[in-house]
Amino acid sequence: MSDGERDRVYLITGGCGFLGQHLLQVLLEKEDNLSEVRLLDKHVDPGLTQLSTDRKKVTVVQGDVTDYATVLQASRGADVIIHSASLVDVWHRVPEAVIRSVNIKGTENVINACVENSIQYLVYTSSMEVVGPNVKGDPFLRGNEDTPYHIHHTMPYPKSKALAERMVLEANGTKVSRGEALCTCSLRPTGIYGEKHQLMKDFYQDAVNRGFHLTGIPKSTEHGRVYAGNVAWMHLLAARGLMEQPQTVAGEAYFCYDESPYKSYQDFNMLFLAGFGFRELRLPALVLWCLAYTNDLLRWLLKPVYNYTPLLNHYTYTVASTSFTVRTDKALRHFQYRPLYDWEQCRARTQSWVNTFPLDFNKVA
Description:
By secondary structure, this protein is an alpha/beta fold. Helix content is 39%, strand content 17%. It is built from twelve helices and 13 strands.
């Protein structure tokens, strides 16, 4: 069996997280030329090894992407790295230095490990936030990868993701230790949703805390959403594209998209949370703006004694109230991506998970 035909070893950084577990499932179900999936994560789920089969092994490796020795060891013998480990924070919960360490230093470690271990293929999980929405509130309507847009970042998370993506794409073509060229690409999901999505749980908890109300922005705002299973599927197809047609895929960035409807964040969440009897509370934009700035002021005043980090702040208000949707077929043209799951399947799978949330609100943690 030639090197191109042998079963491959995939390493997923952040492999035990929300997207990582969807990536694992898609690889096990859809990748025939697969011998092992390694899951590198700081917070591991040893039970995932039970998904191993006679032909496909699942290995869980506990470690931090900020430690180069760990990344180097975990990636030794791998053929493909899907770098999805990331620290997401737009609520000021995590110090900027920590965010930069994970998102930038971690990405640098992965690139260097590819070079030292002669790993030719690297797919990076980026974010729509490397583009926007910007804090100026400029809409991005049905945009594609080439749509002009004034990118303006203020929060550490989008700044770090933008820099990390640039590092990955600039590393394309770098010679690895055996002399071959490193092939990289970047995928930019819009708002990911699906089973085990912590932010969906946070919105649920926030509504419970507010007396079963969801506070939202005007219905005219729309955002692109994409199901985690389709994001995972696009990663697998992108990895295949790097191997089979690097002249097309390598060095490129792609928005992740599927058939999920364009809606405001609240309206989309209500598609799944309405069954709990939550009521929508529509506040005027000026009131929400004032609440966001009040929360920022309280966070600053309380910082010496308490880490006050509500979901609503100036940044999250601006993002939530600025329309950002994509319409593109670049992934279809470059590596034949079509959604693995249609909208009805995405909705049903997510709803089945949401239905496991506690019904006795007095027992909600």
